[in-house]
């Protein structure tokens, strides 16, 4: 089987790589390990010669995904859609500042998404043929068309699917989706591999800190986190690059960090530095306005951090009973949750569950089951396609099934 996994447009990915892009690349790698031929593309209309199926990521950017999907349909390729439905509406309507917040509160969801797309087109040159449909038929109409026409949907949780149905007034039948867990690499994010090693000298001082890994932007809510822990006994460490299109918010964060002697912003860090920071920290906090899961929360917990997470989105399905939850609009709630997580320490049950159930290998196997559904729906009478539903051989004599 030859699968093309498609991310947001190349300009968008270059300016703002995120969890959806990580998910595409890591899923492709894990699919290769079970014998599926994959490549990843950020093109809108790539060459689909010899491609059996197209796997698109991110329902939140329907202007990109629809161009990619229509290109696939013209070439008679089945389409799988990883929804990665990280809806920004609560943040946009409640906490976004400036003209974007004004538009959200006065004009509604379709208008703010159109405004954001126009802003990105002007500032980052994210300009292509998918933008006019945001004006008509509109943002949510594009999302509904994608969901109706794609051959299989691959949400990261049942909670995500329920949010999609509620927000877009849909009823998606059980035979049209497969839940694909978000994941980590259990070998790379293993405390056992780091035990007995000395951390890099420039990171050793962060042992026992409160850590927040993620791009610094309004949705991730670092400003409220800093204010919640200002004057506390905790050493707060932020690790992440500044958002390219939120300069005012980034400058507010810089100013707040400068006023708080117990807070440090490291900027962008390497994967190895990030892994050591997780290993050294006692608590990891992600007080976002919305997270489908929060890949960094999975990584941090796998390496022994106690978690503070938002209840907004799908985090309850992953972390209920194993994390402290905070309200993103309440600095007191964030502080109380950090206090609770710091007292509790790491959760070994969650750590083991992540290392076994929330891995990229598990995501690949679930994705492959979704591919089988898509292929059978498109080619139900084809002997060639029916063979994919069997148990093909994987490398080294192993086997897998959909």
Task: Characterise this structure.
The chain has 402 residues and is an alpha/beta fold. It folds into two domains: 168 residues, Rossmann fold (3-Layer(aba) Sandwich); 166 residues, Glycogen Phosphorylase B (Rossmann fold, 3-Layer(aba) Sandwich). 47% of the residues lie in helices and 10% in strands. The protein has 18 helices and eleven strands. The strands form two sheets. A six-stranded parallel beta sheet has the order 8-7-6-9-10-11, with helices on both faces. It has a five-stranded parallel beta sheet with strand order 2-1-3-4-5, with helices on both faces. Helix 5 packs antiparallel against helix 6, helix 10 runs parallel beside helix 11 and helix 10 packs across helix 15. The longest helix has 19 residues. The radius of gyration is 21 Å and the shape is globular. The two termini are 13 Å apart.
